[in-house]
Amino acid sequence: MTRLLLLILLSLFLAGCATRPSGVTFHAEENPQSLDDWGLFDIKDGRITPRAGLVTYELATPLFSDYAQKWRAVFVPKGMAATYDPEKTFDFPVGTVIAKTFYYTTPAGFAPGQSSRVMKATPASYQSGVAGLDLSQSRLMETRLMVRRAGGWEALPYVWNAEQTEATLQRTGAAIPLEYIDGGKTTRFTYAVPNVNQCAGCHATDRTKALMPIGLQARHLNRDFPGEGGDINQLKRLAMIGYLKGAPDPAAAARNARYDDSTADVGARARAYLDINCAHCHSATGPARVSGLWLDSATKDLRKLGACKPPIAAGKGTGGHEFGLVPGHPDQSILAYRLATNDPGEMMPETGRSLTHAEGVALINEWIAGLKGGCGAAG
Asked: For the chain, where are the E strands, in sequence order?
């Protein structure tokens, strides 16, 4: 009896070990409760690092999410590759996993996962494309997966525990109170993890309602970033490692500006900012296409950018303003107002933030102020 019991306990132990894969593991149908079951990361010696095949990347201009920093990585099955598209999201094969980990820097002296206090910081101090993410001053919030299955893309939000040892699937989302420290100013807000239905608000970018990744497009990836092969262009890296086929020389590909590059043209920076933050809805194929307001960087017609255009369905979101954009007058422009306000019924984007991105608003105001023309009496 004792021997039989030992055998049973041993089999259970071995079965438990088998549920923690040693490498990236694609689940074609199952949605594991634990992020560990995807085999994406190792946590050791104070760092979270990518497993073999999981490649870190960064966007030229990132989407604003309440000042959260983001560690982005993509896995493509061996022997397969995404197909390059000059404008749209690359066509990734079944088995692709995209992981975006949201995190904040914590003040010195606080245990990273235990404190509700987070602070403004530069991601480069804690993250690289080579060695993963330093956890000594980082609070992991969530890891959002986008998984390419036979039926299309699916989104799965995993929320990290306070000890930063495990993330679990939270299909209904989560609300986490935080205190954000920017210099001498502290702002209390609630960090919102979206539920799976809310993911469609940004990622369902066409009439079929099918989910699609946002950032894995040529214009967002066409920049240098440290990683496998050194500090090189990301399109070139993805092609070199076999993750991308059909890509041209980076010089021939679309390239968005970095919104915080003070040496770049203000217009290019502003358009890149609106592109990544707004164009997944406000485009010819996005959920907000009926508004007639298209904010992707390829749109050149100022009228489609809102210039002297009355809103169609903004409701009280107009802030009392008459036009979407009044050249020369950010203070009279609905676009600038909705980016600046925190009112849930008026702000844009509608989800994904509770705070105002002061630097982004300042950039858009500077751009609008430099536009010529006005709108009749408003100009």
From this structure: 41-44, 47-50, 54-57, 69-75, 82-83, 97-105, 117-119, 127-128, 132-134, 138-149, 152-160, 167-169, 174-182, 185-193, 224-227, 230-233, 244-245
Q: pTM, whole model, 2 decimals?
A: 0.89
The residue type found at 249 is D
CA torsion angle 328 331 336 337 (round to 10): -160
pLDDT greater than 80 at residue 55: yes
Three-state DSSP class for residue 168: strand
| Position 104 confidence tier, pLDDT thresholds 50, 70, 90 | very high
- What type of residue is 132? G
129-157 burial, b if ≥16 CB within 10 A, otherwise e? Answer: beebbbbebbbbbbbbbbbbeeeebebbb
211-220: pLDDT as tens digits:
889 899 999 9
- How many CB atoms are located within 10 Å of the residue 116 CB? 14
Domain boundaries, the chain: 21-251, 261-378
CB 69 within 8 A of CB 51: no
**Mean pLDDT value across residues 60-67:** 94
How far, in Å, CA of 339 to CA of 287, rounded? 18
Q: Region 247-272: what's the mean pLDDT? A: 96
